[in-house]
Amino acid sequence: MFADLKIELPFFKEKTSALIATGFLKGIPSSPGVVIAKALVIQPEIFISANDKVSSGTSSFEIDRLTQAFKDLNLEFKAVVDRIPESNTGAVNILETNLLIINDEFLQKSINAFINDGYTAESAVIREFEKQKVYLLNSRDKILRERATELDHVKTHILSALKQRCLQYNIANDRVLVAQSLTPTDFVNYKEAGALAVVTEAGGIASHVSILARSFETPAVIGVKDATGIIKNNDLVIIDGFTGLVIYNPNDELIAKYQDKIEKIEKHRIALGKLAKEPAVTADGRKIHLMANVDRLDDIDAANLVGAEGIGLVRSESLIINYSTIPGEELQSKWYREIADRIYPNPVTIRAFDIGSDKYVEGMPHAESNPALGFRGIRYLLSRTELFKAQIRSVLRASINKNVRFMLPMVSDTSELVKSLQIIDECKKELSAEQIDFDANMPVGIMIETPSAALMADELAELSDFFSIGTNDLTQYTLAVDRTNELVSDRFDSFNPAVLKLIAMTAEAAARKKIPVGICGELAGHSAATTILIGMGITELSVVPAMVLELKNRIRKMKYSAVKKNTSKLLKLPDSYQILKILEQ
Amino acid sequence: MIIIEKEVTVRNRAGLHTRPAASLVKLSSRFDSEIFLIRDGFMINGKSIIGVMTLAAENGCVLTIRAEGDDAEAAVNEIADLFEQGFGEI
User: Fold this and answer.
1) pLDDT confidence of A18, banded at 50, 70, 90?
2) B72 touches A: beta carbon within 8 Å
3) Cβ–Cβ of A97/B13 closer than 8 Å?
């Protein structure tokens, strides 16, 4: 996994006779897909001063110019909105909101006031927007600070309209756009003119370019430092919207490699058909959040391709299996951030290290005679506060775009959860004091995988933002069966009514407290189990990416009202043989 | 003239970013009353999207809605509902 996380860049020796040097740039992957094409570099606007004044008596001429610019902009926006299909609500919303800002009469009055003070229309616009931006940039919230870019776009629109600039969009045909940033209307116009992909220097993954790129299925990499300076017009560019890698002047070997990747993606897409884009909803309309489990970075691309609605489980201990000691906060936060960015805007649930038991790592005191009942999961983490805090801090740091959830493993009573929440609060205070951004409301949930946790589900639900049921451990502890022990492993049976009753209790407690309850264990993907799990009220299922579509197909065919009724009957049966007989019909 | 004030909390996780700001302004503009939002003594016009955006009201932040006019009561209640429902983003 670690090797995957770092992007291995081939090392190119400087050759004296080298024709063109291949170069690599890394940005944030904001819309998936791979494109190989020539670059169209859009140079940033020339600098306009905020201090230009007009000679006295000509202010009314400036106000007329501004009024005309606003009229032109309205026509331009309406023309663009009319051309976008209504179903593309993401794009329509963005454009309409931009227009709402342009037509804000308070904004227009404020700009006019600067003009009346003697400034040119351009300088007045810049002054007003700089004034407004300060408010946003002072916000404590990262997403709100990013909105300052939006104001910049509106400013650019107005300045262009004042110049009556007429952009040549058609030159973008079959090109990769490389720009400092793109306004929403520019994006749509270039896209319609045939642009294939987008690279920008500015932007977060919640930015407008990202939303538009995803809604137009245009591969995009954003936040590429100095892209417009480094990449030259007409350079051949490979853009990988899955990994955030931008390669300019690629050699033949790289071109062949990425052409191969493009073909594979295309084949995959055709094979999956339409199902990947359909929602996971039962025939009678109950929404199930269908997500994918991820243990390696490659799984994220697979999860995105099959249309998983997020990552239901990242087993963080699987990230460290090749390490002799547990890596520190910096490295960990990089991994979590990369995962969160690549699945954005969908959510990812990162489970704290479940170390101990069969998952032995260095630093464990000694082999235990009964590791499954021993020093593992949250018990281990609470005894190693420094290690636990480093992980909490790195997950919090990765949560800035508000799509990260944190989950605690092997909780067996409320005190463990209370202690963990206190430590999480401490970490939040530390980060705030260090002025490091994070999502202050990052959901914290727990695994329900011990019978004691299932029995105390109501009390635990008071303190949790969500539950996730670990069916393998729950089965092993409930039935007192070690499934690695051949002598008893045939008794390991998740359809045993005792196990099912505990799952049902957990689901009911979650429903009472209105928190999501999911299953991320093997049982979630079991063909016979889907109906009974959904019938119990489970709202989230997370399986390996390869299983997502099959499961979605099953969900779309079932009726929640019917399986709910059936489930209450099944839970009254005395053994798994009779339960399975009905389920497998 | 009727003047009504009511406290509300920003409940949607992403805060009053552009989309909620747009819904708020569209709703406010339907009323004849003057609508204001007040945060820490800082007051903006509820019919101005740039005003609402620059309030930079994040999740959990408490605001006062103030309406002045004949339909002030309906305005305050409907706007408070919008906050309560988290702008459909909860």
Assistant:
1) very low
2) no
3) no
The enclosing H or E element of A348 equals: strand A348-351
CATH of the domain at B48: 3.30.1340.10
Would you call A144 and B13 a contact, using CB atoms and an 8 Å cutoff? no
Task: Pick B17's closest partner by Cβ from A104, A132, A144.
Answer: A144
Query: ipTM for the complex?
Result: 0.85
Q: State residue A205's pLDDT score.
A: 62
**Cα–Cα distances in angstroms (integers) from residue A533 to residues A494, A516, A567, in the given order:** 12, 14, 8
CATH of domain A59-163: 1.10.274.10
Out of B17, B25, B47, name the one closest to residue A147 (CB). Answer: B17
* pLDDT value for B40: 85
Instruction: Give the phi and the psi of residue A197 in degrees, each rounded to 5.
Output: -160, 170
Considering the segment(s) A283-583 as one domain, its CATH architecture is: Alpha-Beta Barrel (3.20)
Split into its structural domains, chain B has a count of 1
Phi then psi for A408, rounded to 5 degrees? -105, 130
**Contact flag A144-B19 (C-beta cutoff 8 Å):** no
**Domain A20-44+168-268: which CATH number of 3.30.565.10, 3.40.50.300, 3.50.30.10, 1.20.120.50:** 3.50.30.10
Q: Is A132 on the interface with B (CB under 8 A)?
A: yes
Q: Do B19 and A97 touch (CB under 8 A)?
A: yes
The answer, yes or no, to whether residue A209 has pLDDT greater than 50, is: yes
Q: Which residues on chain A are in Cβ contact (under 8 Å) with B21?
A: 97
- A105–B48 CB contact, under 8 Å: yes
Low-confidence residues of chain B: pLDDT under 70: 90
Domain membership of residue B25 as a residue range? 3-88
Query: DSSP string covering chain B, please?
Result: --EEEEEEE--STT-S-HHHHHHHHHHHTTSSSEEEEEETTEEEETT-HHHHHHT---TT-EEEEEEESTTHHHHHHHHHHHHHTGGGT-
Residues of B with catalytic function: 17
Residue with tokens 């329509």: A92
Q: Does B11 touch chain A (CB under 8 A)?
A: no
